[in-house]
Amino acid sequence: MIALDKDLQSRQNARDLVREAKKAQAVLAKFSQEQIDAIVKNVAQEAARHAEELAKMACEETGFGNWQDKVLKNTFASLRVYDAIKAMKTVGIIRDDQANRVMEVGVPLGVICALVPSTNPTSTVFYKTLIALKAGNAIIFSPHPNARQCTWKAIEIVKNAAIAAGAPAGAVSAITQLTLDATRELMHSKDVSLILATGGEGMVRAAYASGTPTISGGPGNGPAFIERSADIRQAVSDIITSKTFDNGVICASEQSVIVEDCIYAEVRQELEAQGAYLMNDDEAARVAAMLLRANGTINPEVVGKTAVWLSQRAGFTVPAGTRVLIARQDTVSHNNPYSREKLCPILGLYVEADWQAACRRVMELLTNEGLGHTLVIHTRNQDVIREFCLEKPVHRILINTPAALGGIGATTNIFPALTLGCGAVGGGSSSDNVGPLNLMNIRKVGYGVRSVDELRASGATPAAAPAVAATPAAPRYQTSILDDDRFNRPAHVSAPAAPAGAQPADDRFVSHTTALCNASSNGDITEENVEHIIKQVLARLGK
């Protein structure tokens, strides 16, 4: 037997997984809504039971964040996501518009390739498994190498839970020989219908470049604007709570704070009272030097670390209770790390003359990085909210809430998700908080309700007519398409005779063969009758 090299073995592993997933998905596609829902429920409940175990495992393996907050994320990604999708119709006829005679049918995509980030390795597995299975898809995971053990453990838990509830083997799986070749093999497979990408910018770009349809999250760089009418104490509390949640690894968390000059003194006092440390110029320069690598990407050593650890790493000391490091800034650029995404409890601080100047700074920050992602505003002024909502190039605008938890739908009623689309402006294909409906196609069924003659008549120039008081029109149709008696009438039963002067009955749902046989001298299949039927068919076709 010939031993394959590691890269070839890993590619073969990926191909085998795709073959098994394709078989499993063909079985899932025939399941009823009740069967799918039973699988999803069991997966969610079993995942939640392991929330703490996996949180500790992820924290220990990656060194990112803290396990207490990861427990909340695991619970959110299992039970909260399940609550949001459990009543969702995804199988068969999912919508029947009886008035307009249109139906919608849910169609699974097939096999989904899911990339898992090291920042949220177990919660992402729970979330993506639930939304994929709910839409009737099979899913194959590609774990991040720096979080492989906790990710594999999470996948094993959801896979076993799915099978225990009736899912076919292969519906949930993962690459076991982690190489870039294996991930590329998955992404380029003709039998993979969609890549669900959450991770670094390079991997997301590779997913889009594969030619396989892709839905992704994008880098966040969310500004938080504290407007003069805000409850300042609560605004500061929300920002610090958000930025320190799991030590800042959620991409929706705040990256910069913009404050109106007239309230800056009060805001600064509140920041310091709640555990923020405002760095001097030298300290800020030291921290900036360690935030980015030479290639301009974030230094993984700083991701998910505490403010105290970061200050020590930069060579200065802060009070033991320090929660966030803040650097006063007045410039925005790709080379200024304070104006970019920082996956740790560090914030840039900008002071502006008024809300119009704050608007311009927000645009500058978002254009620098984070287009399409998230913006948070702390204000009581509805006019300010309206102005920001109408103009800002983001798809999540959060009002008076911690951004990290509001953006994913934990402290807001936005759809709960861990893949946050940035839309076309952010280089993505979706602007949604991604859920099951993003992972399925919708087949439209439309019934003919008007004739070509009616269309022509409606295009004619209407003659002037006296004004008549409008009377609400009753819906033309009150029943489902499938309630039409032409679907229910046995083939051998003729349509009812039409009244004198009426249009001929529609016999399109009557078997033409049956009708033609009945038109012959008798129903026997003889050479003479068959020849007679053929002649009648040709006559109907005008031949």
UniProtKB/TrEMBL annotation:
Name of one Pfam family that matches: Aldedh
Keywords attached to this entry: Coiled coil, Oxidoreductase
Coiled coil regions in record: 14-60
GO MF annotation terms: oxidoreductase activity, acting on the aldehyde or oxo group of donors, NAD or NADP as acceptor
Keyword Coiled coil attached: yes
InterPro entries, per database record: Acetaldehyde_DH_acetylating (IPR013357), Ald_DH/histidinol_DH (IPR016161), Ald_DH_C (IPR016163), Ald_DH_N (IPR016162), Aldehyde_DH_dom (IPR015590)
NCBIfam families the UniProt entry points to: EutH_ACDH (TIGR02518)
Full protein name: Acetaldehyde dehydrogenase
